[in-house]
Amino acid sequence: MTAPFLPTDPLDRDIAIRLARDARTSFRQIAGEVGVTEGTVRTRVKRLQSAGLLRLEPIVDIASSDGDGTTPISRHMAFITVRCQAGWIDTVRAALLAMPQVEALYDANAARRIVAICLVDSLADVATVTNAVIAIEGIRDVDSELVLQTIKYDATIGPIATVEDGAREPFDQA
Amino acid sequence: MGAPRSKLRSTHDAIDRQIIAALRRDGRAQSTAIAEELGLSGNLVANRIRAMDAAGTMRVVAVADFRVHGYRMLARIRLQVNGRSPLDVAHELAARDDVLAVHLTSGRYPISCLYAFASARDMIEAARDVSSRIAGVEDVDVELLNTVYRYRPSIGPIARPDEDAA
Question: Looking at beta carbons, which residues of chain A come within 8 Å of B47?
Answer without folding.
Answer: none
